[in-house]
Amino acid sequence: MSTTRRLFLQQLGAAGIVSLGVSPPAFLSRAAWAADSAENKAKDGRILVLVQMAGGNDGLNTVIPHSDPEYYKARPGLGIPKANVLKIDDALGLHPQMSGFKELYDEGRLAIVQGIGYANPDRSHFRSMDIWHSARPDAEYT
Questions:
Q1: pLDDT, tens digit, for every residue of 63-119?
Q2: What residues form DSSP beta bridges with 134?
Q3: What gap in Å lies between CA 58 and CA 96, rounded to an integer?
């Protein structure tokens, strides 16, 4: 069964990360089983889930700067109306279809990290992705 990013997010939000309705790649299943074993459990019971959505995701309509008039000025047709934004504070909010994420955020089970980067970027998308995936800014090719 194939899925789209939109369907993935809808299922993720609706299920609260319990069931996606699709089979994950085998390496993810193995990692999940390994993490669930007694010797690998975190002492505080917390688990980090990282979802990287490469390509196509509109970050400004995912985490929305609803208090910034420049957002609405620059996106007259794409901007999410302020009344529809799932507000997380006075400045930011989530897309209205991300109610599951909002619930997790409200429960303190989701964090949003913005403005990440690395020192001395060369503005190459490909080099940046290489550094992001390898955590090796010192190696020219990884």
A1: 999 999 999 999 999 999 999 999 999 999 999 999 999 999 999 988 888 877 788
A2: none
A3: 14
